[in-house]
Specification:
Pfam families: HemN_C (PF06969), Radical_SAM (PF04055). By secondary structure, the chain is α/β, with parallel strands linked by helices. It contains 19 helices and 18 strands. Helix 4 links the parallel strand 5 and strand 6. Helix 3 runs parallel beside helix 4 and helix 8 packs parallel to helix 10.
């Protein structure tokens, strides 16, 4: 399969000249850098010696009611009901294996992602949440918990289960409020469905609603983008995520050969700037290149969790797990046949299968330091020098001297204690992420898997 494109070794200035949209660095290293391990490892050994006092549990549901044309995630549309049932049962078995391997632990965050977790029936959702409580000991009432939904899958019974099980954040992909633009994304969707879904979510009493929007869609203009932003703001979501469109190989849009390169003008920078201004005027605070938080969003009252330092336990096919030294998962695919085969194998897994790890990426000291810097820098508040020193016993300026180039170019502010991206740096996050990828990880990603 094709990996997410990475930047060839080059100077920062050369990368900046390419334009701001090169690759989304939502994790490091990207899963396309994972490989079969030299030998399978026992799950208990992988977690031995790890700090398990503040873990994130992530459950991956790789099913959707439709496959969006832009999607390059590990997901499949319209699976057979039998496969969905067997998959849910396998995730519950996996929880048993994790329970036995982890020993004493504490989960402080929980999320169901996908795919579309709300594709599951209310009964299937209830089974998963019940097992998370009973098998893994997660306090559903007090643990901050989120779920991803799509408008057409929002139903009263599903929402009732999620709210009863302590879910406090619902994230919904709207992408655009223009009928023509959602058709261009190969995602048939009506505004009436979106509005009805938002109203149902509000009636159910979820404290946080996030809406995802996409800019750079074929046929989208600054005026139509502004209209979508205004439509989203009228719904007063607590969070808004803005995603620039990337057309990747082996996605629906990629197969149709719809490429940004065919358009002589890339309006995404102007659309991004317009969105930043409009959301700021509405009182939203920018957290990263993509995330904006409303002034009425509730404060996070849950236990502290840091993605840079705390572990993640992934459940389900495609879910990634993070320890300090090893990131692991099942294999990864984009195309339907390969995805289905991986999901089928997962659904057949027994306890012994789920008690071992055989695919992932082992992080040496350099990669651990690089990951910490990337994950810190690309969102607010930024890279805290004291946190880095506490974690690694050294200074980022010595370990990653190239970061000093950011302040010189006005992309970051460095006051000696905090390296934080400026507005110009946030706008270039999809350039800076690839720039910070190590040569070894870049080679793996470019080679595919």
């Amino acid at each position: 399969m094709s990996a997410v494109p990475t930047a060839a070794p080059s100077s920062l200035d050369a990368l900046l000249r390419r334009g701001p949209y090169q690759a989304y660095s939502y994790s490091y290293p990207h899963k396309s850098a994972y490989r079969p391990l030299a030998a399978p490892r026992a799950l208990a050994d992988v977690w031995a010696g790890e700090d398990r006092s503040a873990l994130f549990a992530y459950v991956h549901v790789p099913f959707c009611s439709m496959r969006c044309g832009f999607c390059n995630l590990f997901a499949m549309a319209q699976p057979h009901d039998d496969l969905v049932d067997r998959y849910v049962a396998a995730v519950v078995r996996q929880m048993q294996a994790v329970d036995e391997a982890l020993g004493e632990r504490r989960f402080v965050r929980l999320a169901l992602g996908g795919g579309t977790p709300s594709y599951l029936s209310a009964a299937q959702l209830e089974r998963l949440y019940g097992a998370l409580s009973q098998r893994l000991g997660i306090d559903l009432e007090d643990t901050p918990s989120g779920i991803e939904v799509s408008p057409e899958t929002v139903t009263t019974d599903r929402l009732a289960v999620c709210r009863t099980m302590g879910v406090d954040r619902v994230s919904m992909g709207v992408q655009s409020f223009s009928d023509a633009e959602v058709r261009a994304l190969a995602r048939p969707q009506q505004n009436a469905t979106v509005i009805a879904a938002v109203e149902a979510i509000r009636r159910a009493g979820f404290p946080v609603l996030n809406l995802d929007l996409i800019y750079g869609i074929a046929g989208q203009t600054l005026a139509s983008w502004a209209s979508s932003l205004d439509s989203a703001l009228a719904l007063a979501p607590e969070e808004i995520y803005l995603y620039p469109l990337y057309v990747r190989e082996r996605t629906g849009l990629g197969k149709l050969a719809i490429r940004r390169a065919a358009d002589p003008v890339d309006d995404r920078p102007a659309m991004y700037a317009l969105a930043c201004d409009r959301l700021a005027a509405a009182g939203y605070v920018q957290v990263s290149m993509r995330m904006f938080r409303a002034p009425h969003a509730p404060a996070d009252a849950g236990p502290a969790y840091s993605c840079q330092t705390d572990g993640m336990v992934g459940l389900g096919a495609g879910a990634r797990s993070y320890t300090s030294r090893l990131h692991y998962s099942s294999h990864y695919a984009v195309e339907r046949v390969a995805t289905r085969d991986i999901v089928e194998r997962f659904a057949e897994g027994d306890l012994a299968h789920f008690a071992t790890v055989d695919y992932g990426f082992e992080l040496d000291g350099e990669e651990q330091r690089r990951r910490f810097a990337i994950q810190s820098l690309l969102s607010q508040p930024g890279l805290v020098a004291a946190d880095y020193r506490t974690r690694f016993g050294s200074d980022w300026a010595d370990d990653l001297p190239q970061l000093s180039e950011l302040a010189v170019r006005g992309l970051a502010r460095d006051d000696g204690g905090l390296l934080a991206l400026t507005a110009a740096g946030l706008a270039r996050a999809d350039t800076l992420g690839p720039w910070l990828v190590s040569d070894g990880v870049a080679r793996r990603m470019d080679a595919g898997c």
